[in-house]
Every structure is written in structure tokens, then in C-alpha cells.
Design goal:
The chain has 19 helices and three strands. The chain has about 400 residues and is mainly α. It has a domain of about 70 residues. Bound molecules: zinc ion.
């Protein structure tokens, strides 16, 4: 018999004892034998018998009988559903909660709880459409239910349904009376990126501008806008945008700039390179320098990368930065080989909120779901100590 069944039995016995004890308090002892209360308890006891004989489905049937008699027993039932979900038995959890909805005598509060629980069951089981459907029914009863709004937002973001996500964030702003402007800016930026991928440049442009209006510090929107201006050949505007990027976004994100400035080789040669050099002379940000050299190696060539490395005079680097530069070296030494191998699997970014580390930049943290919280990993630790997500 699994430990889960044993745990379930212990809970069921505790509930049975509690119910019997409650009856004794509610009614004088001599009346108990004659009241329908026994009928309420006996299916529960039968359920416990089934649990003892390791027949959880028969036990569930008996629990249904309990719940049909007095609605307070439905709470027992809800608790069992939570336990099943907690154990990953989503099918059983769903059946329990659907049984509650099938009852004609249930209070609207219980209906509401059953819808929320079904939303959680389906979400945990990966059936996101059905989860959304049940959360929506819960929200139709209680329009400001925060856990359901958060759960729907999580699902919409997971499914990259940015319009729906933005509607939910606006709703959260109303319910919580709080500003979600930065969050909304990142969602608008994702919409802009989508529009760009679908070839709708004017829409992409207006969405990126809207995102920057919502939050001028939104790195994602800045870089998209910059990319759009370079692609449109508006180089002067692009340089102004790059200046704004440096003054409005957090310095930890500045290392993301070289990649964008190098997307178009004409722009890079004409103005991007000089801009990067000015930026280097002004800030001497080693992460920016190393990333710039990496980008040159990737898009122009090894020789040019080496020349840039010498020009920048990168020194007193952390072990991480030394290894990243060593991985670019053409000389076939053991260290270079090891560095190249390490570079392939190393995590480059970490979430400021929860510490999770990832290989490539992500605008939303895969663990804590915060937007814009990823920053380049620096310091001398090579692998980091926090949790990794690939
Ligand atoms: Zn995080």
C-alpha cells in the first residue's frame, strides 16, 4: 500500500472522528441512534473501509454519498481533491471537483471553489485550455479573485497569448490598485516582436513606442525600437535611440547593445562601432567589452576580435571573462579547448529576483516569471551556485 493511501486513510479517519465528535456535540447522545446523522457518517466509514482495502475509487464513490447528504461534508471532499492533486493524481482530483458541481444543493461559494479547484487541476495536468475555462467560470462568480487572475495570466504568458495577458494585467491593476506599467511594457514589446516576425513593421513600430511610453526603462522595447530604426535605415534616429537606451535602462543590460548594433554591418561600420567605442571610453564596463569582442568574433572574424580585444586593453578580468575570451582563441591548446567546451554549456544570465541561471537572455524569468530581471552573470565564480535552468 502506498504511503499516499496511508496518508489518505489517516486524514479520512481523522475526519470521521471529527464528524462523529461534532454530532455528539450537536445532539444529545440518546438521540444519535435515531437521527439521519448515522446515514451521513456511515458512507464515510464505508469509504474508509475501501481505503483500508486499497480501493481508492470505491472509496471516492462513498465519499460522494457523504457529500450529498450535508454540504459541510463537501469541504471534506474538497480537501481530498487537493490531496489527490498534490499527489499528481489529476484525474481523481478532477472527478471529485466535478462531482461537487453535479450536485443540485451546493452553495454558490462551493461552486466557486470547485471551479477554482478544477482550474488548478487542469493547469497542473497541463490541460491549459480547460484550466482557463474553469478559472473564467470562477471569475464570473467572483470577478476580483486574485489567485484566478494570476493563474490565468501565468497560462496566457506561458502560451505567448500576449493580448489576453495584457488584458489580465490591466485587470490586476484595477483590482490591486497598483501600477503594472513595466509588466505591460514587456508584454507590448513581445507583441511588437511578434508583429515584426510576421512582417508587419508599422504595427511593430507603434507597439514598441507604446511599450516605451508605458515604461521608458523597458530594455526589451528599447532594443526592438533600435532594431526597427536600423532596419529602416534611419541611422541618426537609431543613434539617438541608443543614447536613450544607455540613459534609461539599467547598466546591467548595457551589454545587450553590441549584438543589436552589429545586426547591420553597414550601420555598424558607419556609426555603430564609433558609438560602442565612445560607450567603452565612458563606462569601461568589462561585461560590455567582453560581449562586444564575442560579437565581433561571431559576426566579423577572429582576427578583428583579437584586434578589438587589444584595442580595448581588457585586463584584470574575472575568471569567467578570461575563459570567455580564451574560448574565442584560435590557438589549439588544451586550455582553449576546455574553454570552448565550457562556453557551450555555461550559464550567462541570472535572475536578480530568484537567482535562477540560464544560458541565453530571457525577458521573463522561467522560474519566478518576473519580467526584465535577468542580468549577465559576472564575478569570478565559473559556474555559479544558484539553481540552473537550461
Ligand atoms: Zn526569477
Amino acid at each position: 500500500m502506498s504511503s499516499f493511501i496511508i496518508a489518505l486513510m489517516i486524514v479520512a479517519v481523522a475526519i470521521a472522528v471529527a464528524l462523529i465528535w461534532k454530532n455528539r456535540e450537536d445532539f444529545p447522545e440518546q438521540e444519535i441512534e435515531e437521527t439521519p446523522e448515522d446515514v451521513r457518517v456511515s458512507p464515510l466509514l464505508r469509504g474508509i473501509n475501501y481505503l483500508l482495502s486499497d480501493k481508492p475509487d470505491r472509496a471516492l464513490q462513498e465519499m460522494v454519498q457523504v457529500a450529498k447528504i450535508r454540504s459541510e461534508s463537501a469541504e471534506v471532499y474538497m480537501a481530498l481533491g487537493e490531496m489527490f492533486r498534490g499527489q499528481g493524481e489529476y484525474g481523481r482530483a478532477v472527478r471529485i471537483h466535478q462531482n461537487i458541481l453535479a450536485r443540485p444543493d451546493v452553495s454558490s461559494e462551493l461552486y466557486f471553489q470547485a471551479y477554482v479547484s478544477l482550474g488548478k487541476d487542469f493547469q497542473a495536468g497541463g490541460l491549459l485550455d480547460r484550466a482557463i475555462k474553469h478559472y473564467a467560470k470562477a471569475l464570473a462568480i467572483q470577478t476580483d479573485h486574485l489567485p484566478s487572475l494570476y493563474a490565468c495570466l501565468r497560462i496566457r504568458e506561458q502560451s505567448h497569448e500576449w493580448d489576453e495577458a495584457e488584458w489580465l494585467v490591466s485587470r490586476l491593476e484595477q483590482v490591486e490598485n497598483a501600477s503594472y506599467h513595466e509588466h505591460r511594457a514587456y508584454l507590448k514589446a513581445e507583441m511588437s516582436k511578434n508583429a515584426l516576425e510576421q512582417g508587419d513593421a508599422p504595427l511593430a513600430e507603434s507597439l514598441a513606442i507604446e511599450a516605451l511610453k508605458l515604461s521608458p526603462s523597458c530594455t526589451h522595447a528599447h532594443l526592438l525600437r533600435l532594431r526597427q530604426l536600423i532596419a529602416a535605415g534611419e541611422y541618426d534616429q537609431a543613434l539617438k535611440q541608443a543614447e536613450l537606451f544607455l540613459s534609461q535602462t539599467k547598466p546591467e543590460h548595457h551589454a545587450l547593445l553590441p549584438e543589436i548594433l552589429m545586426l547591420d554591418s553597414t550601420f555598424y561600420r558607419q556609426s555603430g562601432e564609433a558609438f560602442m567605442l565612445d560607450m567603452w571610453n565612458q563606462y569601461h564596463d568589462v561585461e560590455v567589452g567582453v560581449r562586444w569582442v564575442e560579437q565581433v568574433s561571431k559576426t566579423i572574424g577572429e582576427k578583428e576580435a583579437k584586434a578589438l580585444k587589444d584595442k580595448l586593453g581588457l585586463k584584470n578580468l574575472s575568471l569567467r571573462h578570461e575563459l570567455r575570451l580564451a574560448a574565442l582563441d584560435e590557438v589549439d591548446t588544451n586550455l582553449v579547448q576546455q574553454a570552448k567546451y565550457w562556453r557551450l554549456s555555461m550559464k550567462l544570465f541570472a535572475c536578480k529576483q530568484c537567482g535562477v541561471q540560464v544560458h541565453d537572455m530571457r525577458w521573463q524569468c522561467p522560474k519566478c516569471n518576473t519580467w526584465g530581471s535577468m542580468e549577465p552573470l559576472q564575478g569570478s565564480h565559473i559556474f555559479g551556485e544558484e539553481q540552473h535552468v537550461s
